[in-house]
Amino acid sequence: MSLPSDAFQHVASRPHEPLRTFHPRRAALGRDREDALARLFPRWGFSVHDEAAPFPRTDDGHLDAGTLFGRHAPLVLEIGPGMGDTTVAMAAADPGRDYLAVEVHLPGLAQLLLLVERAGLSNVRVAHGDALELVRHALAPGALDAVHAFFPDPWPKARHHKRRLVQPEHVALLRSRLRPGGTLHVATDWEPYAHQMAQVLADDPGLVSDGLGDRPAHRPVTKFESRALAEGRRSYDVVARRRA
Predict the structure, then answer these.
(1) Where are the domains positioned within the chain?
(2) Is residue 236 a contact partner of residue 189, using CB atoms and an 8 Å limit?
């Protein structure tokens, strides 16, 4: 089964659809990635929006992670894993937790599936679509051990700041799905956005934030981050924990 590159676009046509925090892009998949989607997506993936590619649900309608992964383990939500290198590296180093990577861009999702297959990992699953929609409608309160959002689109123009992922209403939603003590970890190479991230997480009454910091050792350097460093831009990380 291969997903069309516009598989998520019908979501934006619904009345009163919230502003998206991502910018749709088009890119050719190539033979290997088309093959990965056809072979691996039915086994390890599902669509956030397409009922033809459903995900397992509990009796109350929430995502059934135990069925999805075939075990019960702490769950990490990866928002926008890019081309998947960081997700695979972290999941490989952290076999006791399960990683659900949600991506809107099919080339990255397909590449992640290829990397998971090559690494022989069993603790990674993928979802195609808007991560906030999945969180809002399918994840139960307290279902997550951690949320990672590394280098989301900074939407640098002031008129686009309302589209940023890290803003109070989105952070409150993500925090509500964390278990007490669970972590929300965000990173960016855009300094003004970094300060906004730090302020929003510090202001959330349900979180305890470490403030702006350097990349922790357990987060690999992403390819995007490597390019930013080569261009003279440093990265900033903010880690916050849900209050007990």
Answers:
(1) 24-66+79-85+96-138, 141-244
(2) yes
Backbone CA torsion sign across 29, 30, 34, 35: negative
Residue 223 counted as an annotated binding residue: yes
List pLDDT tens digits, range 46-94.
999 877 667 999 999 999 999 999 999 999 999 999 999 999 999 999 9
The reply to whether 222 sits in an annotated binding site is yes
Phi-psi group of 68: left, alpha or beta (phi > 0 → left; psi -120 to 50 → alpha; rest → beta): alpha
- How far separated are the first and last CA of the chain, in Å rounded? 43
157 is in an annotated binding site: yes
Q: Do domains 24-66+79-85+96-138 and 141-244 have the same CATH topology?
A: yes
- Check if CATH label 3.40.50.150 holds for domain 141-244: yes
Going by C-alpha positions, the residue among 168, 152, 156 that lies closest to residue 235 is 152
The residues annotated as belonging to the active site are 153
Q: What is the pLDDT of residues 158-193, one digit of tens each?
A: 998 999 999 999 999 999 999 999 999 999 999 999
Which of 138, 53, 134, 70 shows the shortest CA–CA distance to 101? 134
Question: Annotated binding residue at 78?
Answer: yes
**CATH code assigned to 24-66+79-85+96-138:** 3.40.50.150
Q: Please give the Cα distance from 74 to 94 (Å, whole number).
A: 11
This prediction's pTM:
0.88
